[in-house]
Write a structure and sequence with these properties.
Blueprint lengths: L3 E8 L15 E8 L2 E9 H9 L7 E6 L5 E10 L6 E8 L6 E10 L3 H4 L3 E4 L3 E6 L8 E4 L8 E3 L10 E2 L6 E6 L3 H12 L5 H9 L1
Parallel strand pairs: 1-4, 2-6, 7-10
Antiparallel strand pairs: 1-3, 2-3, 4-5, 5-6, 7-9, 8-13, 9-12, 11-13
Length: 212
């Protein structure tokens, strides 16, 4: 179920706008807070963090965070902030947890199957990429599976259709749409093509004809 990741951090005194210079040092500002842990400003290696994030294992994993070479703290990634323009990670929040206490977190949705509606020319629209769940830290699933193999054009798959996992309670509303197969907007495309192919009207010539 849960994958354990080891990550090192160092305490930091730099806060606010001064955090920007940490990027040049290869560090990512973060904060640790939660059960039995007073809010603490830390920094982690930016490259390591982004690599784990890119592989898709970080947000659904339990992290053993070692701060200043001390005793590891069990945490999960609570939130990640990104630069609005560049899209790069600017800050991370780690939430300290207890292994015997139920937590609420998010896990990614994994889409399986080949939708016949897509083969027929439809377009798969993804409404939800992550699902909120409640579970023990040791039972956090790597992902929840959504089987789209029966979707025709016009069909949808809902939260209630997700494949259940023992010990995991889904918190999102059952009726929420996760994905749907929609018909392509053929008519609009054809109208645009027709408009582009139409011969443009030359205003000068029209005025000359009117004068005759």
């Amino acid at each position: 179920m849960t994958e354990f990741i080891e990550l090192s951090a160092t305490s930091r005194d730099v806060i606010g706008k001064a955090n920007r210079r940490m990027g040049g040092e290869g560090l990512l500002p973060a904060v640790v807070y939660g059960v039995g842990h007073k809010a603490q400003a830390v920094a982690v290696d930016r490259h390591t963090f982004e690599l784990l994030l890119h592989h898709g294992t970080l947000t659904s994993s339990l992290v053993k965070l070692t701060i200043d070479e001390g005793k590891p703290v069990n945490v999960i990634v609570k939130s990640i902030q990104h630069d609005a323009v560049k899209g790069t990670v600017t800050h991370a929040d780690f939430w300290a947890i207890k292994m015997d206490q139920v937590i609420t977190t998010v896990v990614p949705v994994h889409f399986s199957g080949d939708a016949p509606g897509v083969r027929a020319g439809g377009i798969m629209a993804h409404n939800l990429q992550h699902i909120r769940v409640e579970t023990l830290p040791t039972h956090i699933p790597e992902f929840l599976e959504a089987d789209v193999s029966a979707l025709e054009i016009g069909d949808s798959i809902h939260v209630s259709d997700l494949i259940a996992v023992d010990g995991v309670t889904i918190m999102d509303a059952p009726e929420e749409i996760i994905a749907s197969v929609v018909a392509p907007k053929v008519e609009e495309v054809e109208e645009e093509v027709a408009a582009e192919e139409a011969e443009p009207e030359v205003i000068g010539e029209k005025e000359a004809e009117a004068g005759e």
